[in-house]
Amino acid sequence: CVQETGINAEYMGIIILCGMMNLRVFQKVLRTRLFSTASKKEYNVVVYGSNVYSSAMALALSHCSHLGGKVVHLTNQFMSRKCPKISLLNRNSRKLIQTLLQMKTEEELSTAGHILKSLNFYDHKINSQVAFGNNSGTAECLNKMNSFFNKCGCKSSANDQSICAIDEEMLRQMLSQKLKDLKTDEIEGRVKSIDEIDKKVKLTLEDGTTIQSDLLLTGERQDPDIENFSVPDKKSIFYQQKVASCLCAIPEDLDEGYIRSLSKGLISLIPIKSKLAMLTYCYPEDREDIETMDKTDFLKEANMKLQEVSKCNTRGIIKTPLSYPPLIVDILSERETSQPAWIQSSKFFNKQTLLFGEAAHTFYPLLLHDMNIGLNEIAWIANAIAKAKEATSYSQIGTQYEKKGITQANAYGTLQHSIKCVTQSDSAFPFKTIQALGSGLLNMLPLGNYLVNELAHGACSHPSKYEFTI
To answer: How far does CA 164 lie from the centroid of its chain?
Structure first.
């Protein structure tokens, strides 16, 4: 070739080398263009989060036919827990879950939950027990409470006392599987930045993928490292306590749960399967020994607190025998420790981004009913989007939801906070006197019994029925 062209061999070598380098550059560009994971996708609605709230919202919107499949569930890496997180759902919540999962009977929920006939709430300082089902109050009392809840934008459900202890992770898995069965788009990736462009939301993932939508819904607390994501101001009350949760073995099958109000916190034992229960122990922040206790000592402490009862001042107040929880036989999981707090965003809607569930609020775990209010929000949002004819109405939906959501969260949080202050003494006189008076009123008046009854069954955070249909 060199001889025929008359080109010097040294120059020919340089030409060949340049050609090879250009070919490598061309191959790199071609590979980037054809095989890169970076891409651009457009949707009507993006649901972001890996928890049970985000999965339920994505599934609810997947049933909205007018969206035409333009819904995507964007998940990040799910954080595993040392032990399950148990929530108590009333019948309205269970009906929504059944609708989303297209279940015909409640028994199909047995994979994730266990139906309880009653929940015993006991305040040891005044030695009283609200035996649910026996203290429902008079018709006049019922009407007063219904009126109160209606003013807060809530409804009562006292006619149905049954509740369901449900494992949130098991429920999330069931919802995720249903999303896959419906072939709903799911993208796994960590969000790098969120931008607002021409009344649309643009999410950029770490792998370069961009997702654009008319509305962003998030039910999970967001990573503050996300660029351009303005997290709304929050009002926070952190309690000087810690909560330890773990799975434990009990000697018998139970269909009722137990909650004991202690002087510095509470302890609950909620059955979730045959001879299996969830223990939640709230203790003072200065009890550092709880975290270092071995399993045997913690088991002894928990049993002592569960059985703790004041023997004085009965004076005929108790109309039914006290129901004691069974002794715990064994601790079956690691202890998960956290600090209880009431945290709530000042805004639930910001431009094209809407917060619900854990992204909007966290409550003091007094009666394990956080999930009821989150599902209530999901039902309202899904109903509103299902009725919306065009994306331009999403802003109006967000404004209406924010007003409703903040009102309900405030009512629910204030109620839990008030009962926490009434039933747990951590202040000096004169607050203790006021506290004792409040405890006595809660115990003696039918209205007080009914109030705790309704709170325990999630009535103050729920609509009377769901109108969301598939």
So the answer is: 15
Rounded-to-integer distance, Cα 453 and Cα 121, Å: 9
CB 265 within 8 A of CB 424: yes
Q: Hey, what are 155's tokens?
A: 């409804």
In 3D space, the residue among 116, 60, 122, 62 whose CA is nearest the CA of residue 381 turns out to be 60
Residue 136 carries which DSSP code? -
Residue type, 192: K
The length of the chain is 470
Phi, psi of 238 (to 5 degrees): -100, 125
Helical (H) or strand (E) element with 298? helix 295-306
Give the model confidence (pLDDT) of 81-139 as tens digits.
Answer: 778 889 888 878 888 898 889 888 888 888 888 988 877 776 644 433 333 333 334 34
Collapsing DSSP to helix, strand or coil, 130 comes out as strand
5-34 pLDDT, tens digit per residue, is 455 555 455 555 555 555 554 444 444 344
For 357, residues 6+ apart whose C-beta sits below 8 A from its C-beta are 49, 51, 53, 54, 57, 219, 220, 374, 377, 378
pTM of this prediction?
0.80
152-185 pLDDT, tens digit each: 545 544 445 678 899 999 999 999 999 999 888 8
Average pLDDT score over the chain: 75
Q: How far apart are CA 370 and CA 351, in angstroms?
A: 26
Give strand pairing partners of 116. 163
